[in-house]
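Entry for the shared binder. Reason: the reviewer on the internal report wants the predicted structure included alongside the sequence.
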Amino acid sequence: MRVRVGINGFGTIGKRVADAVAKQPDMELVGVTKTHPSYEAQRAVTKEYPLFIAGDGKRAAFEHAGIPVAGMLSDLLGHVDVIVDASPEKIGRQNAPLYRDAKVRAIFQGGEKADVAEISFSALANFEAARGKRTVRVVSCNTTGLARAAAVLEPRYGVEDWQATLVRRAADPPESGRGPINGILPNFHLPSHHGPDVRTIFPNLPITTTAVIVPTTLMHVHVNRVRLSRPPADAAELVEAFRRTPRFLIFREWEGIDGTPQVMEFGRDRGLGHNDVMENVLWENGIAVNGPTVEFFQAIHQESIVVPESIDAMRAMLGLAPDAATSIAITDRALGLSGRGPAGSRP
């Protein structure tokens, strides 16, 4: 069975999910949408993705720009099994009635409130809970990163307390109108919303988060301090637990990757498309175990980390894979993710 997929919104997330869908052996990309003509709309056509018009977009504007369109969003909804809503924050909720009326399953992004969907989703944590659901919310980039780490720590070691400080990028690379460009902005909402969002997946996880925004576009960095009830014997054990888990990229000190610039350079060299790094990035020398407390840094590429999660969410909803491990393996193989370091360089 090949599931028919539409992408509503062909921006930062949407174009990446579209490319990912096109690579999956059990999925067919039926089309993508834009509201107005742009280089991204032209890029969709160049890639031979059928382009549909969403929102208040006007066909004449696309025709004037010389960009062919296949129809309106309503036409796309008539030909898909599932729609991935990759529209801007809060627009997904406005679109929800359209999907419901069209009787198509829908995946929303983490910028929407949790109650937009039946369940919030992270593939490593609650794949089975999404099985058969008609609406699923893939949690945000930061929450995805924390949920993946929780999927390693909680079942193995038992989390008693988790304090995380999120050093957040100020903007995505294309966002010229956001900042700061010379400053650090504390998030005075204490604690930040990320902890409660993680608990939409792990309801009883004792996690508290704070956040600051810094002038970079590359990645987020999480500074984690976690007290465990059954701690690992040493850092090497914890490193191995992360390394054996899909979608974790563990760099060794000798590799010379000591910050987000080198991580993104690694992404360029790996060549997955869009210079993406879809895994949680950790450093061996940035993981410590002190009695019951573990500390670790992780870097999160905000533009791409949710992409494989969106693919797995579709498989869970439609019953295309028997379990999370199977779906994750199919997704990661198609996307070229090794899950254990630079492609081809890990045993």
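Summary line for the report: Residues 145 and 280 are 6 Å apart (CA to CA).
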